[in-house]
Amino acid sequence: MAAISGISIALVATVTHAQDKRGPVTNLPLPRYVSMKANEGNVRRGPSLTHRIDWVFKRRDMPLQITAEHGHWRKVQDRDGAGGWVHYALLSGARTVLIERDMMPVHARADDNAPVTAHFELGVVARLGSCSAEWCRISAGGYRGWASKENLWGVAPEEVRD
């Protein structure tokens, strides 16, 4: 019984530690979401200018997830898991999300029965506002409203924002 308790405590400690992971440079949580500040940014194999460029992100405001930090470099990935190392100057703390459902309804309130103010196409990048447990306020193209969090990439499922 004591061995099982020890395993349970170790498992809980591991899960808690994983949730509390912080970047060694910024002391901000990892992983976390940011967006592309620049119109394009080189994605490198490693955290320096000497590393080969694997590809170039070419979408301003695209949401990205930071998974690691090293000096002035951030390891990022996009919605499809593609990524690498990007210089921190190319990133912004301004939050955006990627719409994951075609013709996703955007509501006047955080309620499925609220009037629909717009429909956003699959792949639209929208600004992220406040979020409850299930809904986020978003805006794009002059339209704004509330969307179900399950249709958005760039916000954590448990994330609540004021």
Walk me through the structure.
The chain is mainly β. 11% of the residues lie in helices and 42% in strands. It has one helix and 14 strands. The protein has one helix at 2-19, and strands at residues 32-36, 41-44, 53-57, 63-70, 73-77, 83-87, 91-92, 96-99, 104-107, 116-120, 125-131, 135-140, 143-148, 152-153. Strands 6-5-4-1-7 form a five-stranded antiparallel beta sheet, with no helix packed on it. The longest helix is centred in the N-terminal third of the chain and has 18 residues, at 2-19. The termini are far apart. Residues 2-18 have low confidence and may be disordered.
Q: What labels describe this entry?
A:
about 160 residues, five-stranded antiparallel beta sheet, mainly beta, about 10% helix, 14 strands, elongated, disordered N terminus
Q: Give the tally of β-strands.
A: 14
- Helix and strand composition category: mainly beta
Could you tell me how far the N terminus lies from the C terminus, measured between alpha carbons in angstroms?
A: 44 Å
Percentage of residues in helical conformation: 10-25%
Largest sheet: 5 strands, antiparallel
Q: Give me the Rg, rounded.
A: 18 Å
Main sheet: which strands, in order across?
6-5-4-1-7
The gross shape turns out to be elongated
- Helices and strands, in order, run as HEEEEEEEEEEEEEE
Mean pLDDT, as a whole number?
Answer: 91
Which stretches are poorly predicted, pLDDT < 50 over at least 5 residues? 2-18
